[in-house]
Amino acid sequence: MHIIKLNNVSKSYLEDKKKLQVLKSINLTVEEGEFVAITGTSGCGKSTLLHLIGLLDSPDSGEINLAGESCNSISNMEIFRNRNIGFIFQFHYLLDDFTALENVMIPLLVQGYKKAEAVKLASEVIISLGIGQRMHHFPNQLSGGEEQRIAIARAIVTKPKILLADEPSGNLDEETTQNVISILRDLNKKGLTIIFVTHDLNLVKEDDSHYTIKEGKLIQA
Ligand SMILES: Nc1ncnc2c1ncn2[C@@H]1O[C@H](COP(=O)(O)OP(=O)(O)OP(=O)(O)O)[C@@H](O)[C@H]1O
Ligand SMILES: [Mg+2]
């Protein structure tokens, strides 16, 4: 089954009354369980594309279908996003005033989970990612790799159907990068559909569906 389908999706930004056409008529079909890698030079539109698929921004034209639903017809975007999509940002965007555990609990509380249940589920995910001993710390007390793993925990705690990862290892050392990537690979083996943006071609595997963006077009790499 197609879990993600983009039909002729275009996106531009307006800057000083000038139009910057970032994505031009993008088509993409992703099957359930696929691992999609998107590479391309800085500024080519990778984050823009991921934000559109993650319903954080809307296209100028074209259609996005997620989990069988046309996104033009979703009545409550927030709820749909919370239920279906996990997002790991290029910069992790943890909330500084909340502990690691609380950051991971937030998407569950949004879904209406009771606090005790949210604590239990969030702790389990954090422990499974190997950072249980840091869960009561605040983001500024964590290393970059720990913060990124907390961001992964936050993205997957609600068991989304789709995980969108925007350079999740961008600022990490070699070993921590491998650790973060192996977490994503494991999640994918368990069936999670992942779109993974990276500028590091070494992180792309032969079996991945590999695309690149060039002059606004998405092309098979
Ligand atoms: N909100 C915005 N307003 C205006 N221009 C934007 C906006 N967001 C992105 N852009 C521009 O759109 C283009 C694509 O940006 P995008 O962030 O998608 O690139 P990217 O491929 O993710 O780059 P990087 O690898 O550096 O993260 C860039 O030229 C960028 O300057
Ligand atoms: Mg980017």
Descriptive key words:
221 residues, binds adenosine-5'-triphosphate, Rossmann fold, alpha/beta, binds magnesium ion, single chain, six-stranded mixed beta sheet
Task: Provide a short characterization of the protein structure.
With 221 residues, the protein is of the alpha/beta class.
What does this structure look like?
It contains 6 helices and 10 strands, in the order βββαββαβαααβαβββ. With 221 residues, the chain is α/β, with parallel strands linked by helices. It has a single domain (33-61, 77-220), classed as 3-Layer(aba) Sandwich (Rossmann fold). The strands form 2 sheets. A 6-stranded mixed β-sheet has the order 6-7-8-3-9-10, sandwiched between helices. Strands 2-1-4-5 form a 4-stranded antiparallel β-sheet, with helices on one face. α3 (100-110) packs parallel to α5 (144-156). The mean pLDDT is 93. Bound molecules: adenosine-5'-triphosphate (ATP) and magnesium ion. Adenosine-5'-triphosphate (ATP) binds at residues 13, 15, 20, 22, 40, 42-48, 90, 199.
